[in-house]
Amino acid sequence: MTSRLRCALSLLALIMLLQGCVVSRVHVREATSIVEQSQPAGATRCKRADHCPTPSPLMAAAEDAMHYSTAKHPQHVVTLLNSGEAALAARINLIRAARRSIDLQTYIWAPDDTGKLMLDELVRAAQRGVKVRIIADQLFSFSDPEQLARLARVSPNFQLRLYNPTFANAKTPPLEFAAGIMCCFFQFNQRMHNKVMVVDGTIGITGGRNIEDRYYGWDPSFNYIDRDVMVGGPAAREMATSFQHFWVHKRTKRLTQLRDVNAILRDTGVQPVHWTEPVYEHPGRVAKVRRQAEDPSWLGQHILDHTLRVGPVEFFSDFPGKTDNPDRKRSLELTEHIMRMVANAKHQIVLQTPYLVMSKQARKIFLKLHGDHPQPRVIVSTNSLASTDAFAVYAMSYKHRKRYLKDYGFEIYELKPHPADLPVLTPPASDDNTAAATVPPSARQDLHRTRRRNSPAPLIETQGMRIGLHAKSIVVDGAFSMVGSHNFDPRSDHYNTEAGIIIYDPRFARQLEKSILRETQPKNAWTIAPRQPKVPVLTYINQAIGTVSEHLPLFDFWPFRYATSYDIDPGCRPLTPSDPKFFQCYHAVGDFPGVALPFKTIYTRMITAFGVGLSGIL
């Protein structure tokens, strides 16, 4: 028997074994009893009915909007959170301001400083009497069953559940990961991509940010440009309702229903947990953001000064278990609303997405818009190979550049890995690096694995902090906008559940459009444009071969693509590729500028050649 056959048989046996390994009701009841006996009874740190909230100008503004709202004339306060620093401070401020409840759902919860800080703040809120509920997608969150067993006992007010766990486990080893793909791919592949936090049903935050250092500028080597919206008013109730749908859904599992966590709880028995301050890699920055979250003047300058009072705001979320009932009315709620927004555009669409891979429905809409008279202008901000940490998805965008430029009329700007005109992010100061030595080895290993999960391509030059794009936003006709978790790709359309907020206000649209367009400027992005025809006959032959190659499902290896990347010449002003003077002011810098070693470019070309059928999965 060959080693391959033995491996396949072993995997098949594992699949059959794991499919029957649901935690028995007896074991769930036993673990639940242990948790209830371990939790401190009546040991809340606050005896007041309001659970001792910290005064918050953010919450006060939301309560004011809620007070003056009516069914016919809703009132909201909305704040665009472009800065990771402000986004984290706002979250901490609202957690401390909670009086009744905090509901939080996320796709990633990492064991780094951000993950520890958020967890500590939420546990402390629960200990003063606030009802705290967390839903995290299992694939990239809380992979330590021992930690989950402790969290299950920490407070009767603290509950954590995992969405769609593979084979009812909190931790998924590589073999189980492979088994999950083989035995039940559609369920395994459907993830909860929502990022939502709601406090007291009055104010919430939603957008693209997960709970991980790189979303808040704290990673030592690679951080994201990302975006959230904080909204106070009736839309927060819609966010709370959406959370409740996920909380009670069959794919959302209690900790006692997870095989590995359940076994630990039953093995250790009744065991009270004494919550202590986490050990941070960089405690200085944690202390700083906590001070900012309590400082009314800092909050005023960095958050409230940019807050707008608006009217109608809508929160949309796909239904949990999206792939189970794709025809159910709410299953694709956000996707369908985005498509209607785009289809009704008359003048201009400004789109920002990490992954420029269009679904079939989106392709039809943009093709129709390009045939309209007049044609709406479509500006797209996305990643380059040098800035992305998802090169396989980038390969699909690279494959269809001609379609995007010629058939849909896109103006495409790909982010540089070291954008010059954006705030400079620097690693934490070395004087608090000594704290990292006290982090337990197991925690450092988990953190190392998290950071290596998505490794960007090596660069020719390193110029300090490296930046990638993770924001998902759209502005239509300068009138209404959407910020959320939807990547405008087939995975977001058909597999992952997504959430987003739609704001019908031109002032907010201007704020968002300005933010996106800043990231398309020549200092920050390369322009994608057709290759300059130097030898006309050869150029036309090359384009013809490239077109045929692009439409092949396999073997799309033709290296000379229709379009390439351009950078601006010194002394020139920014121009669009349609401008007759474009080639006088821009020079080609290659298909994958900035990327050092050939491995990622080779992989990219291989995915381009063979991966067209995987676009929805990637």
TrEMBL record:
GO MF, any single term: phosphatidyltransferase activity
Pfam families named among the record's database cross-references: PLDc_2
Biological process (GO), any one: cardiolipin biosynthetic process
Protein name: Phosphatidylserine/phosphatidylglycerophosphate/ cardiolipin synthase-like enzyme
PANTHER family cross-referenced by the UniProt entry: CARDIOLIPIN SYNTHASE, CARDIOLIPIN SYNTHASE C
InterPro entries to which the protein is assigned, alphabetical: PLD-like_dom (IPR025202), PLipase_D/transphosphatidylase (IPR001736)
Lineage, top ranks: Bacteria, Pseudomonadati, Pseudomonadota, Gammaproteobacteria, Lysobacterales
Source superkingdom: Bacteria
Domain PLD phosphodiesterase intervals: 188-215, 465-492
Region (Disordered): 431-455
